[in-house]
Amino acid sequence: MLAALREPARLGDLRAADWNLLLRVARHARLLGRLAEDVADAGLWSTVPERAARQLQSARTLVAHRQIRLTWEVDRVLWVLQDLDVPVIVLKGVAYMLAGLPAARGRLASDVDLMVPESDLAAVESQLLERGWIRGAIEYYDDRYYRRWMHEIPPLRHAERDTEIDVHHRILPRTSRFHFDPALLIARISRVPGGRAYRLAAEDMVLHALVHLLLEADPQEGLRFRDLVDVADLLRQFGKDPAFWDRLLVRAEQLGLGRLLYYGLRYTAALLGTQVPAAALQGVASQGPVLPLRWLMDRLIPLALLPEHPDHPRRRAAFSRLLLYMRAHWLRMPPILLFQHLGSKALRRIGVRSLSRPPIAVEERFQRR
What we know:
The protein is mostly helical. Helices cover 57% and strands 6% of the residues. It is globular and about 55 Å long.
């Protein structure tokens, strides 16, 4: 998988058995569409076995359909909100599509991620609910958890199109140790060319991709390899401007995301061969962890990040995914709130619903902090 992404021209040398394994890994990593685009750009269709070519073409068709569908969903959201004087900021995959960035090539997005100022959040949600979007079934505790602590409201789904939208008011939970004022992001947004939506500044798009990569771990999937590919694509595109790298370092320091940038530059360069200027690597070196922790992360992150052989999963990779999942939760909220939250989830799993309401004393202590 790494070789295919780093040197697509080598795909022409693969045997049928190699293609079989590569397609399985790419599908699991949600990079099958991206692989198809690399084959097309390299002019290698004639070298691909027929059955593999069919799967790649099917992936291209699915990506094109999904991108059209999500682009239309954004259009409908903007139409519904046109009477509100609210900047609607597209995030992640939809932002890459509407901005025409290479990171959108073959990218299979599943939903629409938007951000609006928190002061306008209630009006936006009310307008969407009045015009066809509905809330899914959600327990009282989960709804309250979203609204009090998280960076978004519970997902909304259109009643007819069945397309999901996530409405954010920041890119990090309120409780995150990396939390910062979202007004800093909104102050630098720009309108998507030819549209009514907005997108984040180039540096902020990279940092948001790193937030999603390093702070959204999954216990089964680990760190999402596709997110690292997003980071690499954004760096290659924006990094064509030599001044971008200095702006990126300054912005990461301003937002308190220097440690995430350190990891992002380190692993995109090491794993995907992204050309990062030496000055940028040196500039972010001071944000890195102490040597023992760096040694540990250099072993955990690749294990949790890189796709495994589908027939031969490794216990140490599963253990790495679990450790980084625990790390993500540890960074997501203060210890007392984390233990209370995990305890409430455990109680609900065994059917104890009456104890799922968070103690007010815990909330008040956190608010005073």
